[in-house]
Amino acid sequence: MSTTNNERFNAEANGWDSNPNVQLATALAHKALLARLPSNSNELSSYDVLEIGCGTGLLSLALAPAVRSLTAVDAAQGMIDVLQAKLLAKHQSHQHDINNVRAVCALLEDPDDPRIQIDPVADHAEKGDSTDMHLRFDLVISHLVLHHIPDLPAVLRTMFGCLKPGSGRVMLTDFEDFGPEARRFHPEGKMDGVERHGIAKGEMQELLVQARFVDVVVETAFEMEKLVETEPGSGIKGPTMTFPFLICTGRRP
Ligand SMILES: C[S@@+](CC[C@H](N)C(=O)[O-])C[C@H]1O[C@@H](n2cnc3c(N)ncnc32)[C@H](O)[C@@H]1O
């Protein structure tokens, strides 16, 4: 990710949660994930989850109570600081203590990156010389992140490497590139760090297969209404447009 992009997300971090579009998209993505995760709560509660591009942790904190652990990674320190503050506040209030989330500031490129080799529950570094001893995840998620990633094949390879062989799965949500109008998802003034105007179904399917995922499914997960600029670049909002979101799933064999 570019420095400009980091600066943008650092600057936006404190006001991030007050954007109703962010809250709505998170709630819809959470629902889409739950619909595809094991309904058996015993199975789900054994899951170690890695979220890449967690932002302020809205989705991480929604999912955390259902799973064993959640490692929440973001490249922007500002976003991670907001998540850390939430975790501290929950801890201090005792009523909503969350002990299974770890916030990590990193631009993840290596599944063996020591910054994610710490179990959020046991809170100790996984030790061992053999690669078999490295921490691997049952589930890797990302939401509204892929459209910011310059090199999709590289990030998919990293995600693949982070998963448990045989059973680990990815579930990635982002708005769909359904044609030229998809550009209107972002106001023209907020195009910094936008690498593509959504993700395309066929391309994602192909990229997941190339990254060696099996059981690959790329499908519409939900649709979201969003106010767009009247005229691109005008800064004036209205009307609303409907944006389809895709969920990309695959398993590491
Ligand atoms: C549009 S925001 C979405 C944040 C959060 N998922 C949400 O929906 O509220 C994209 C986030 O992805 C992060 N990001 C982009 N590329 C990344 C990468 N390669 N590794 C980690 N984080 C990344 C950015 O710092 C930013 O916080």
TrEMBL record:
It comes from the Eukaryota. Transmembrane segments: none annotated. GO terms for biological process: methylation. SUPFAM superfamilies: S-adenosyl-L-methionine-dependent methyltransferases. Keywords: Methyltransferase, Transferase. It holds the Pfam family Methyltransf_23. One of its GO terms (molecular function) is methyltransferase activity. InterPro entries: SAM-dependent_MTases_sf (IPR029063). This is S-adenosyl-L-methionine-dependent methyltransferase. It comes from Cercophora scortea.
